[in-house]
Design brief:
Blueprint (H helix, E strand, L loop, with lengths): L1 E6 L11 H4 L4 H15 L2 E6 L3 H11 L5 E5 L8 H10 L3 E5 L21 E4 L4 H15 L1
Parallel strand pairs: 1-2, 1-3, 3-4, 4-5
Bound molecules: 1,3,4-trihydroxy-5-OXO-cyclohexanecarboxylic acid.
Pfam families: DHquinase_II
Subunit structure: Homododecamer.
EC number: 4.2.1.10
């Protein structure tokens, strides 16, 4: 199983950025944990991060025909990028949306996700474990 993990804008600043909200672990630490979980689950992981909407869209398009699933944290784009939503909707690849924080108990503008409706589901609020849970649930979905 080949899975693309996409991190949206400002997630490269994890470990520095608003630690009380997003945790102490650095972006690199979290990526190591994602790769480790992938190894345990026999999932090949490719990790991609961009702060640029169009680059994320291009990456989603590239996944067409090459990846079995996508795990995406669209970060702030979650709340307003119809273009990323349409990209996910275009490629016909099962996608899980993840968030480190629980977006439903934060500011009002964060409670709305325009991308979640084109995903299998959303995992929000478990810190970096949201990514690991997404990988596990992909495996469960595949085997069910
Ligand atoms: C986030 C939540 C978003 O509202 C925010 O813009 C982010 C990170 C999260 O993982 O909790 O950048 O996606």
């Amino acid at each position: 199983m080949n899975v693309l993990v996409i991190h949206g804008p400002n997630l490269n600043m994890l470990g520095i950025r608003e630690k009380s909200v997003y945790g102490e672990k650095s972006f690199e630490d979290i990526n190591d944990l994602i790769i480790e979980e992938g190894n345990k689950l026999h999932i090949n992981i490719e990790i991609y991060q961009s702060n640029i909407e169009g680059e994320i869209i291009n990456k989603i398009h590239e996944a067409y025909g090459n990846k079995d699933a996508i795990v995406i944290n669209p970060a702030a784009f979650t709340h307003y990028s119809y273009a990323i939503r349409d990209a996910i909707g275009s490629v016909n690849i099962p996608t899980i949306e993840v968030h480190l924080s629980n977006i439903h108990k934060r500011e009002e503008f964060r409670t709305k996700s325009v991308t979640a409706p084109v995903c299998i589901g959303q995992i929000s609020g478990f810190g970096y474990n949201s990514y690991l849970l997404a990988l596990r649930s992909l495996k469960m979905t595949k085997n069910s």
